[in-house]
Amino acid sequence: MSRTLEQVLADGIRDIPDYPQAGVVFKDITPLLADHDGFGQVVQALAAAGQDDDGNPVVDKVVGIEARGFILAAPVALALGAGFVPVRKKGKLPAATYEESYALEYGEATIEVHQDAFRPGDRVLVIDDVLATGGTVEACLRLIRRCGAEVVGTAVLLELSFLPWRERLGSEQITSLVSV
User: Fold this and answer.
1) I want to staple 70 with a disulfide (CB 3.0 to 4.6 A). Which of 37, 64, 122, 129 is the partner?
2) Which CA distances in Å does 92 have to 16, 88, 170, 174?
3) Residue-level pLDDT at 36
4) What secondary structure letter does DSSP report for 148?
5) CA atoms of 84 and 48, how far apart (whole Å)
Protein backbone atom coordinates (compact mmCIF):
# COMPACT_ATOMS: atom_id res chain seq x y z
CA MET A 1 0.00 0.00 0.00
CA SER A 2 1.41 3.37 -0.95
CA ARG A 3 1.77 6.07 1.68
CA THR A 4 1.11 9.76 1.27
CA LEU A 5 4.01 12.17 1.59
CA GLU A 6 2.55 13.31 4.91
CA GLN A 7 2.60 9.70 6.20
CA VAL A 8 6.18 9.21 4.96
CA LEU A 9 7.32 12.35 6.76
CA ALA A 10 5.43 11.53 9.96
CA ASP A 11 6.92 8.02 10.00
CA GLY A 12 10.43 9.09 8.99
CA ILE A 13 11.18 12.07 11.23
CA ARG A 14 11.55 11.32 14.92
CA ASP A 15 12.08 13.61 17.88
CA ILE A 16 15.17 13.14 20.03
CA PRO A 17 14.71 15.12 23.25
CA ASP A 18 17.63 16.92 24.87
CA TYR A 19 19.97 16.50 21.89
CA PRO A 20 22.52 17.99 21.37
CA GLN A 21 21.80 19.78 24.65
CA ALA A 22 19.13 19.90 27.33
CA GLY A 23 15.91 21.57 26.21
CA VAL A 24 16.46 20.99 22.48
CA VAL A 25 14.25 18.55 20.56
CA PHE A 26 16.34 17.32 17.62
CA LYS A 27 14.51 16.31 14.44
CA ASP A 28 16.21 13.08 13.34
CA ILE A 29 15.74 12.27 9.64
CA THR A 30 17.81 9.08 9.57
CA PRO A 31 14.71 6.81 9.61
CA LEU A 32 13.45 8.66 6.54
CA LEU A 33 16.79 8.27 4.77
CA ALA A 34 16.76 4.52 5.47
CA ASP A 35 13.29 4.14 3.89
CA HIS A 36 13.95 3.71 0.15
CA ASP A 37 10.41 4.45 -0.99
CA GLY A 38 9.91 7.30 1.47
CA PHE A 39 13.26 8.87 0.62
CA GLY A 40 12.35 8.67 -3.05
CA GLN A 41 9.05 10.46 -2.39
CA VAL A 42 10.86 13.21 -0.49
CA VAL A 43 13.41 13.66 -3.30
CA GLN A 44 10.58 13.99 -5.84
CA ALA A 45 8.70 16.45 -3.61
CA LEU A 46 11.81 18.62 -3.17
CA ALA A 47 12.59 18.40 -6.90
CA ALA A 48 9.13 19.80 -7.68
CA ALA A 49 10.41 23.19 -6.44
CA GLY A 50 12.76 23.15 -9.44
CA GLN A 51 10.11 22.29 -12.03
CA ASP A 52 7.51 24.26 -13.96
CA ASP A 53 3.79 23.47 -13.85
CA ASP A 54 4.26 20.76 -16.50
CA GLY A 55 7.02 19.03 -14.51
CA ASN A 56 9.89 20.28 -16.68
CA PRO A 57 13.13 21.22 -14.88
CA VAL A 58 13.79 24.96 -14.68
CA VAL A 59 17.17 24.82 -12.93
CA ASP A 60 20.75 24.34 -14.04
CA LYS A 61 22.24 23.69 -10.60
CA VAL A 62 21.07 22.43 -7.23
CA VAL A 63 22.89 23.68 -4.14
CA GLY A 64 23.17 21.55 -1.02
CA ILE A 65 24.06 23.27 2.24
CA GLU A 66 26.48 21.38 4.49
CA ALA A 67 25.94 18.82 5.81
CA ARG A 68 22.53 17.15 5.72
CA GLY A 69 21.55 19.35 2.79
CA PHE A 70 24.08 17.38 0.71
CA ILE A 71 22.17 14.15 1.37
CA LEU A 72 18.97 15.66 -0.01
CA ALA A 73 20.34 17.93 -2.75
CA ALA A 74 22.46 15.41 -4.66
CA PRO A 75 19.55 13.10 -5.56
CA VAL A 76 17.35 16.14 -6.26
CA ALA A 77 19.98 17.34 -8.76
CA LEU A 78 19.95 13.92 -10.44
CA ALA A 79 16.15 13.93 -10.57
CA LEU A 80 16.21 17.35 -12.25
CA GLY A 81 19.06 16.57 -14.64
CA ALA A 82 21.02 19.40 -13.04
CA GLY A 83 24.49 19.81 -11.58
CA PHE A 84 25.10 19.62 -7.83
CA VAL A 85 27.02 22.37 -6.00
CA PRO A 86 28.08 21.99 -2.37
CA VAL A 87 28.07 25.04 -0.10
CA ARG A 88 30.46 24.20 2.70
CA LYS A 89 31.74 25.50 5.99
CA LYS A 90 34.81 27.71 5.70
CA GLY A 91 38.06 25.91 4.88
CA LYS A 92 36.54 22.74 3.38
CA LEU A 93 36.73 23.55 -0.36
CA PRO A 94 40.05 23.13 -2.20
CA ALA A 95 39.85 25.79 -4.97
CA ALA A 96 39.30 29.56 -4.87
CA THR A 97 36.08 30.42 -3.02
CA TYR A 98 33.68 33.20 -2.19
CA GLU A 99 32.59 33.31 1.42
CA GLU A 100 29.72 34.78 3.40
CA SER A 101 29.52 35.11 7.16
CA TYR A 102 26.33 35.18 9.18
CA ALA A 103 25.27 35.46 12.80
CA LEU A 104 24.42 32.44 14.88
CA GLU A 105 22.60 32.51 18.20
CA TYR A 106 26.01 32.72 19.89
CA GLY A 107 28.77 33.82 17.54
CA GLU A 108 29.27 33.74 13.81
CA ALA A 109 29.76 31.17 11.04
CA THR A 110 31.08 31.33 7.49
CA ILE A 111 30.11 29.31 4.42
CA GLU A 112 31.87 29.10 1.07
CA VAL A 113 31.30 28.10 -2.53
CA HIS A 114 33.83 27.64 -5.32
CA GLN A 115 34.16 30.76 -7.44
CA ASP A 116 33.64 28.70 -10.60
CA ALA A 117 30.62 26.75 -9.31
CA PHE A 118 28.13 28.73 -11.42
CA ARG A 119 28.04 30.34 -14.83
CA PRO A 120 26.45 33.78 -15.04
CA GLY A 121 22.72 33.30 -15.44
CA ASP A 122 22.61 29.75 -14.04
CA ARG A 123 19.23 29.06 -12.46
CA VAL A 124 19.70 27.59 -8.99
CA LEU A 125 17.55 25.67 -6.51
CA VAL A 126 18.81 25.62 -2.91
CA ILE A 127 18.11 22.52 -0.79
CA ASP A 128 18.56 22.09 2.94
CA ASP A 129 17.17 19.84 5.63
CA VAL A 130 15.92 22.30 8.25
CA LEU A 131 15.04 25.99 8.03
CA ALA A 132 15.34 27.57 11.48
CA THR A 133 16.48 31.19 11.81
CA GLY A 134 17.24 31.56 8.09
CA GLY A 135 20.81 32.78 8.58
CA THR A 136 22.49 29.97 6.67
CA VAL A 137 20.03 30.13 3.78
CA GLU A 138 20.33 33.92 3.60
CA ALA A 139 24.14 33.70 3.40
CA CYS A 140 23.86 30.96 0.78
CA LEU A 141 21.55 33.08 -1.38
CA ARG A 142 24.04 35.96 -1.19
CA LEU A 143 26.84 33.63 -2.34
CA ILE A 144 24.86 32.38 -5.32
CA ARG A 145 23.90 35.88 -6.44
CA ARG A 146 27.47 37.07 -5.95
CA CYS A 147 28.49 34.44 -8.51
CA GLY A 148 26.04 35.92 -11.03
CA ALA A 149 23.53 33.10 -10.80
CA GLU A 150 19.77 33.41 -10.30
CA VAL A 151 18.01 31.79 -7.33
CA VAL A 152 14.83 30.05 -8.48
CA GLY A 153 13.86 29.01 -4.97
CA THR A 154 14.74 27.20 -1.78
CA ALA A 155 13.24 23.87 -0.72
CA VAL A 156 13.62 22.36 2.73
CA LEU A 157 12.47 19.15 4.30
CA LEU A 158 11.40 20.82 7.55
CA GLU A 159 10.75 24.38 8.68
CA LEU A 160 10.63 25.44 12.29
CA SER A 161 7.70 27.85 12.10
CA PHE A 162 8.18 29.06 15.68
CA LEU A 163 11.51 30.67 14.72
CA PRO A 164 11.69 34.02 12.86
CA TRP A 165 13.14 32.88 9.52
CA ARG A 166 10.38 34.58 7.49
CA GLU A 167 11.41 38.04 8.73
CA ARG A 168 14.97 37.35 7.61
CA LEU A 169 14.15 35.85 4.20
CA GLY A 170 11.27 38.18 3.33
CA SER A 171 9.86 37.51 -0.12
CA GLU A 172 12.23 34.66 -1.05
CA GLN A 173 10.48 31.65 -2.64
CA ILE A 174 10.55 28.96 0.10
CA THR A 175 9.04 25.47 -0.17
CA SER A 176 8.92 23.27 2.93
CA LEU A 177 7.56 19.75 3.12
CA VAL A 178 6.83 19.89 6.88
CA SER A 179 6.20 22.79 9.23
CA VAL A 180 6.53 22.32 12.99
Assistant:
1) 64
2) 29, 6, 30, 27
3) 97
4) T
5) 16
- 99's CB contacts (< 8 A; 6+ apart) are 90, 110, 111, 112, 143
For the annotated catalytic residues, the residue numbers are 68, 105
Query: What was the pLDDT predicted at 1?
Result: 67
Amino acid at 24: V
* Count of helix runs (H) and strand runs (E) in the chain: 6, 9
13, 29 contact by CB (below 8 A): yes
Confidence of residue 145 (pLDDT cuts 50, 70, 90): very high
| Helices 68-80 and 36-47: angle between axes, nearest 10 degrees | 70
This prediction's pTM: 0.95
Q: DSSP label at 91?
A: T
Q: Using CA atoms, how far apart are residues 34 and 122, in angstroms rounded to an integer?
A: 32
Asked if 108 and 102 touch (Cβ cutoff 8 Å), the reply is yes
